[in-house]
Amino acid sequence: MTDGIYTVANDFVYNQLVALLNSIEVNVGKEIPVCVIAYDDRLDLVRPEIAKRENVTLLEDPALFKPWEDFSYRLWKTHPSAFKIWQEKGIEGVYRIGMNRRYYAFDSEAPFEKFAYFDADVLVLNTLELVFKSLNEHDFVVYDFQYKDPTHIYNVKNPKLLEVFTQNRIEAEIFCAGFYAGKRGLFTLEKLDYIVSSLERGEAEILYMPAPNQSALNYMIMRSNIPVCNLALQLPKSQTTGCSVTSTHFELQDNVLYDRGNRLTYLHYIGISSNLFNRLCAGENIECPYRDIFLHYRYLHEPEKRPKFTTKAKPFEPDPNLATRVLRKLGLKK
Questions:
Q1: Is 131 a residue whose pLDDT tops 70?
Q2: In whole angstroms, what is the distance from residue 73 CA to residue 94 CA?
Q3: With left for phi above 0 and alpha for psi between -120 and 50, is residue 292 left, alpha or beta?
Q4: Average pLDDT over residues 96-113
Q5: In terms of residue numbers, what domain contains 131?
Q6: pLDDT band at 216, cuts 50/70/90?
Q7: Which residues contact 98 (CB under 8 A, 6 or more apart)?
Q8: Full-model pTM
């Protein structure tokens, strides 16, 4: 059996991809295979970077992803208004369809028997032994506290939500799609057809349109009754850590972060745009949470290129939350 790591990237997130790959190299090891799934065909920077790394491969053949993109289209076609709103705003098909290519990790022909998936805006800061060990006993593993805020997963104002999933399930099973671990072959064709048919019966209105991939993946897992092992709920409270850049209390030591003495598994720079990281790496002195550790991993192999700042950093202005950003992009919020 082969264990491995997936991410999704293109040239726009190149700086974050380099930091992610370097953090995996240092904290997980050079031996674990990593597959970068192409978000689209903007790969001029990504291709040569991957070519330098023996354990990293690039998956960019559109034929690999077409069945999963077709499934994503079928899934969102069931929604009463998604395609109409997206089309009115100049978005053809499924919004951010490139992110749905990550579903290929579940394909029966995918490279890894067991896998961990990370968004490109992540630093991996610990071995993944606990994650892969958990996959020996569970088909799907997460490690976050998204269950405390279901508003970015489902349309919580829709009364049908509690007809589909109980409150107990919502409070225990939803997850942030920036990290999860699973197994190939988890979704059979029969399961995918069942998911679409359930949505066609009126359940599609519970999906959260501003974050289509995250909402759909949560629904896919929960509607298929795949048990979710959330390490944030499974581990003793004295051993759990946060993972989000919005937490300000993590302590830096030897280029990793600790939460109340426990080493983080990963740090997710959620809510910080790729554009900010690109400006930072271009030499613009912008402050942002956990900036130094990002720069450390980004320039791990080329420290001479790391920006040198001599002036006071510009204050960091957090991006609007994901929902607000998407609604603004769609013209639904000022």
A1: yes
A2: 6
A3: alpha
A4: 95
A5: 3-237
A6: very high
A7: 8, 10, 38, 39, 40
A8: 0.93
Helix ranges (H only) for 35-152 are 46-51, 62-77, 82-88, 129-134
* Residue 151: φ, ψ to 5°: -65, -20
Domain assignment of residue 115, yes or no: yes
**Considering Cα of 292, then 271, then 273, then 3, what sign does the dihedral take?**
positive
Euclidean distance between CA atoms 258 and 255, whole angstroms: 10
HSE-up of residue 216 (Cα within 13 Å, Cβ side): 29
In this predicted model, what pLDDT tens digit does every residue of 151-183 receive, in sequence order?
Answer: 999 999 999 999 999 999 999 999 999 999 999
CATH number at residue 190: 3.90.550.10
Residue 314: beta bridge partners?
286
- Specify if 99 maps to a domain: yes
- Tokens 């597959």 locate to 35
The CB density around residue 129, as the number of other CB atoms within 10 Å, is: 9
Structure token digits, residue 285: 């002195």
Q: Is residue 224 part of a domain?
A: yes
| Cβ neighbour number for residue 302 with a 10 Å cutoff | 9
